[in-house]
Amino acid sequence: MNIVGVIGAGQMGAGIAQVSAQAGYRVLLSDVSLDRARAGLAGIAKQLDRAVTKEKIAAADRDAALALIEPVEGASAMGDCDLVIEAATEREEIKRAIFGDVGAVLRPDAILATNTSSIPITRLAQAAPDPARFVGVHFFNPVPVMGLIELIRGLATSDATVATVEDFARTLGKQVVRANDAPGFIVNRVLMPMLNEACFALGEGVATIPDIDLGCQLGLNHPMGPLTLADFIGLDTCLEITRVLHEGTGDPKFRPAPLLVKYVEAGWLGRKTGRGFYDYRGDAPVPTR
Ligand code: 3HC
Question: Residues with Cβ < 8 Å from 61, sequence gap 6 or more?
Answer without folding.
Answer: 22
